[in-house]
Amino acid sequence: MERNHHEDQCNEIEALDSIYCGELEVLETEPHKFRLPIATTEYDPEVETEGLSCKLLFTYTEKYPDTAPLVEIEEPSNFHDGYEEELLEHIHKTIEENIGIEMIFSLVSSAQEWLNVKYDELKNAAETAKEEAKRRVEEEEMKKFEGTRVTVESFMVWKLQFEQDMGITERKEKVAAESRKLTGRELFLNDNTLNESDLKFLMDAGESIESVRIDESLFQNIDDLDLDSDTDDEDYVPE
User: Fold this and answer.
1) Domains in the chain: boundaries
2) What is the DSSP letter of 69?
3) Residue 87: exposure state from Cβ atoms within 10 A (0-12, 13-18, ≥19)
4) Max Cα–Cα distance, the chain, nearest Å
5) 185-225 pLDDT per residue, tens
6) Separation of alpha carbons 193 and 189, rounded Å
7) Fewest Cβ atoms closer than 10 Å to its Cβ: which of 31, 42, 110, 197?
């Protein structure tokens, strides 16, 4: 018996209207042309910033379901470049697997699954990018505590710059200039290391402090020396 394609098509339309509870929108009846929406669970039509959504437009061919129906994608929401082509290719593969039987429910279910999988991939990619950005920030923060490896050359450059910034270099040069102007007697009075070096010289030579002979005659005429009087010092306080 020859198959009555028109009757099969009308029966499928009735079944689809019952399954999708009013979401089926019939546009034409000869041939049947109708629309069904699909969306991920995250999709909110009032916000349209989360999830994926579109409408599938089907048109029965004369010999459907023994021939493939026509399928179009309308009103895609949050689709990235190439998504429409990928979804149509996915639907056409499902059509090839179902030639000869009523397939609209299978096509809609397969397209719905494709949307869910694709949106999961988008969420995972976004989460990965977020974690990567967070990791980069943490690495940059850690670098602040790692410091820079110091070499002799880098330390000397730093030391020179530090001394210049702190005015140490200028003070050193000033002290050196003033030191060159001091007399031998002033250097002797200002530098106790000269006294210490004499004692060290004696100790190194094996002499004890007690065994050192002092020529007292050298100090007999000490009063004749022209030494600065302590009384010339403004801060001098007599005992």
Assistant:
1) 5-123, 148-210
2) P
3) buried
4) 154
5) 665 555 555 455 555 554 555 545 455 455 555 545 555 55
6) 10
7) 197
